[in-house]
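Let us practice reading a record.
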Amino acid sequence: MSQGEGRELVHFSESESVYHRAAALFDAELPRIKTLIPAALVEHVGATSVPGMLTKGDLDIVVRVSAEQFANAEAALATSYPRNAANWHSDSFASFSVDDSTPPLGVQLCAIDGPEDTFVRLRDLLRSRPSLVERLNTLKRTWHGRPMDEYRVAKGRFIDDVLAGKID
C-alpha cells in the first residue's frame, strides 16, 4: 500500500508467493494463539485463504471463542499482539494487527455466534462459489490504486450483500 495526497492507497496482488507466505505465517501463529487460548477455534480467513482471490498481501486470522471466554481471550491476545486502533471494538469483537510481519498480520477475535462472527462463513461462501470470487476480484480491480478507506466501504457493502444472500 502506498500514500497518495496523504491518503492510503490500496494495491492488490495475485502472486503465488504471497499466498505461500500467508500460509506459512498462519502455521507459525496457530500454536502461539492456541497456547494463549487453548479452547479457541483458529482459522485462516481473508483473501489469502481463498484460491484465486486478489489480495492486499496480508494474512487474516479469526480467533473464535464463546461469549463467556471473550474478555479473557481478548486480554490474552493483547499480551502478544498490538491492538488495531483503526478497527472498532465491542463486547464480541476485537482486532489486533502486526504490520511489520511478513506478510502483515491481522487477528480478529470474535464471540461465536456474535454479530461479527461472519469471517468463516464468508470464506466458505467464496471458496464454494467461484462466481463470487470473480465478482469480488472485479471490485478489487476497480479500486486498485485508489483510496483504501473508500475501497473498504465498497467491499463492506459487497460482503454485507453476499452474507444477506443478495448476491449469487
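A brief commentary: The domain at 2-163 is CATH 3.30.460.10 (Beta Polymerase; domain 2).
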